User: Fold this.
Amino acid sequence: MATVQDIEIRDSAARAAQAAAELNVDTGDRMVLNMGPSHPATHGVLRILLELDGEVITKADPDVGYLHRGDEKIAENMTYTQFIPYTDRLDYLAPLANNVAYALAVEKLMGIHDRLPPRCQYIRVMCAELARISAHLLGLGAFAMDTGAVTVFLLTFTEREKIYNLAEAASGARLTTSYTRIGGVARDIPPGWTDMCRQFLKEFAVALAEAHTLLTRNRIWVDRLRDMGIISQEMAIDYGLSGPNLRGSGINWDMRKNQPYLCYKDLDFDIPVGSVGDCYDRYLVRMEEMKQSMRIIEQCLDKLPGGADNKSHEPVCIVDGKITMPPKSKVLSSMEELIHQFMLVTEGVNAPAGEIYFGHENPKGELGFYINSRGGGTPYRLKIRSPSFINLSIVGELFPGHMVSDVPVILGSLDFVMGESDR
Amino acid sequence: MAALESAKKIQAKFGALISEPVVFRDEVSLTLADPEQILAVCQHAKLQLGFDYLVDLSSVDNYGEDPRWTLVYHLRSSKTGEEVRIKTSVSEEKSELPSVLGVWRTVNWHEREVYDMMGIRFAGHPDLRRILMWDGYPYFPLRKDFPLAGKPTDLPGVAFTQPAPLEGGPFVTAPGRDAINREPRMRTPEE
Assistant:
């Protein structure tokens, strides 16, 4: 039942004064600038309180939580399978990668991660890598637009559209994919999907080369990014950065190589690493990662067990009535399958008591799930290690000394998403 | 297993305070008996054993048990890739333990989040404010006795909330022994 309540909306002068009071310092002749929470350059609902001396930032205090939905609380109150749709909404630029990460975490808890059928592993890897390309493309487009290069945004969004089409063909949804299940994927890829994917890779290679010609040697782009927002190796590790932000600082750490999961061991790809740790390095790392993702997808398409149309009927789920749903036709004709389906729907998968942490190399960094289970179909505690949240915590130390006009550049290079940060 | 050796080294250093390492799914967990020593343990792990990367800090509410809170630190060495999990429990009356901000700076926001969600305080943290909820929010929402639907809060000039309507909403289950107890449509805080 909705009720009407008064909201006090003060004028801008009063709000600025309150923002100054919140910083709790004697600003003297410094100015406090309240950036966000709905500023176009903050990519979502991030608010940053900036204390300025002229145009130079002397103090920055990021304020997160505007998109907090209590995902961890929700997870404690439903079965493992029921939480899959919520993972779509973490990093909503790469829902397929979140699905894969969450499913692998639960499978690790259950001890069935090494029983995944090969076809399922290859499909999951392709999904995760398509999601990586999609997320990096959006990050790049928004980054370039904030820096003043609008053309790149249109170019990358044209390519993202094709990835959405691929996601739609595989999962039935463009954004809220919920494609994985505990122990497999929801359904096999449809006939013709591999051709669609190959066609996309062909076109995307051209678009990526075009983005390179637009930016990589562009004088304005290089001038604005070089030596901007430098994160040293020591600082990157101390702040727990992950993903391209960590590798941009020159640290060779990638969960796909360092703690291989799925079939990444059988695939040939390189991990790009930066040297200085500035915005330009982080940009180059992302550009190269997209290229490597293309390599991975191409290898997966070639090696895919069962081939394009799966004539040999390779399974895409673990065939075990206690883990994955039995075929519907059998549910209606066989007692055992009926019981399995009933138990899976009402009680969920029967996970053992114990605790695990699984870190997945997501586009934004290491998306981790800590699951504390006391047995049964629901987690006792599920903690999401959100890379965006942790990558943002460095902002308070990174900004001082930079100009206000550099804020969009550094934020763009950190490439975060608030849905994941605030959970 | 390299991580197990490191865990044994921590155990050797702190003796009876550290429990025997538990290995589950190739992950090593240690339990520290005295939460006041967490800073010393973390410092030792980072400086002597090279655990320079804090992956995550989680908190668990063991509602109805004593001690009520469990803090879970995930440590990693960025050189060797070893991982060790250190757990320590804090009683509800105390609800406080030393901050490890001096060891890893990333823990700043983690500790603020634990305080915000569970209400566990970290002694020595210079800026222990709420981070996901707004300043002045009166509850700690991740505690087990906080209802899923939420509690009404009214802070004029800041925010107002109503409990979320769960009736007819998505199928809500709760941890419990049998299906009857696990699937009430809405839980009340008294339960």
